Amino acid sequence: EQVKQSMERQAGLLCDPEYREAMLAQQKMGARQSNPNLARDLDLSPEQADRLFSTLAEQQLRAMETTSPMLWGEPSDPAKMQELQRKMMDQQRANETEVRRALGDAKFREWQEYQSLSPVRWEGDRVRTALANAGVPLEDDLTKPLLKALQEQQQKMLQQMAAAVPRRNQLVAVGGFAAAVSSGDPSANMLQMQEKSLEPQAQYRKGQREALARVLTPEQLKVVEDEYNNE
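Request: output the structure for the sequence above.
Response:
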């Protein structure tokens, strides 16, 4: 109820032109901060970047204005949920049309690809920063191949995890019960669980190094490996 009241209050405040203008500036600044390298990665002119961030800010304000009345229906009502889904899809298509208009067809396709790589962009920036600090910076034309390699590895890992979940849950449940019965030391069981939790991370890092080896030089790969080992 408090969330609902807060969203309705926000929607009401946005009717004030001065408040709306201030919120628009805030959202635009937030979009820039959330995508610090967007203009560089998409090779956008200052004018193109400004149009894009303005468009994203307007879309965020629109979502703040319209989300509240759309969401607070009966979640168990299939008709209302279907109508909500239809409106969300319509809004998504309208947003894409606005971004396409702001960037043009060619840059819009690059923007879509940029968005698809967002889950691994933080890791890519981390790798690039580590290489730059070590004096072996990544060449600009290898940025996209780097992100692609990280994305492929992430998707592969997620597929492996999804396939292993039923069996892993069964083994953990059975093994954990057997350990609890056979051992009277709870701390020993906790230690075993903590050690088990490191295995997926180690496997992920191993796969990540293999993916990065397709893009980085041996010297650059050594920098990344050293950082992972320290971690």
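Residues 143-182 form the longest helix (40 residues).
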